[in-house]
Amino acid sequence: MFARVLTLAGGLSGAAALSQFPEFSQQYAQRLGGAVDELRLFISDFDADAARVGLERETALVELAEAGALGAARAETMRATIERYDRLETALVDMKDAGPFMRAYHAAHLNDLDIAQAAWAEFKPAVPLTFEGAVFSGAGLVSGWLVISMLIGLFRLPFRRRNAAESAA
Predict the structure, then answer these.
(1) pLDDT of residue 147
(2) Of 9, 55, 61, 156, which has the most beta carbons under 10 Å away?
(3) Within its chain, how far is the Cα of 55 from the centroid?
């Protein structure tokens, strides 16, 4: 009886937790879009400054890096910003093309720690009233039930062997 209560609690916990994924991934995607837009503006300003003095982006970065310690540090920061922009833009395109189920399949795209922390800080769990929320709830229920059932089974295993040996004797 106690094992059934534990497995039910595990299943319900899994359902409650996993049902929140569609909304969290949506909030992450919104923050990701905002970050990409902001980085695009920053990089566009840099490119415009470079163009005003007749330089391409890469040439401007090289010139900046050769302008002393501060310039070198700024050029490195700018390169890192451009790389982050490229990475986040790719993740955003992948997320826009994916529905909630494909977002779960490609959950690795939710990999920017700053954006994930910001989304989590503002995230408010809610009762999912969408089809995908129901599917994720069901998957969480089954997953939680299975995990707790397996843990209880592993815990009981030594006792079953002992009882089987005692019954055979």
Answers:
(1) 84
(2) 61
(3) 38
Query: Tokens 């920053």 label which residue?
Result: 42
Q: Decide if pLDDT at 169 tops 60.
A: no
Q: Let me know: does 111 contact 94? Beta carbons within 8 Å.
A: no
Cα dihedral 10, 13, 19, 20 in deg (nearest 10): -140
Determine the Cα–Cα distance for residues 40 and 45; give it in Å rounded to an integer. 9
The Cα–Cα gap between 29 and 64 comes to: 34
The model's pLDDT over 131-152, given as tens digits with 9 standing for 90+, comes to: 777 777 778 878 887 888 888 8
Please give the full DSSP string across 57-73, using - where no structure is assigned.
Answer: HHHHHHHHHTS-HHHHH
Residues 6+ apart with CB under 8 A from 32: 88, 91, 92, 95, 112, 115
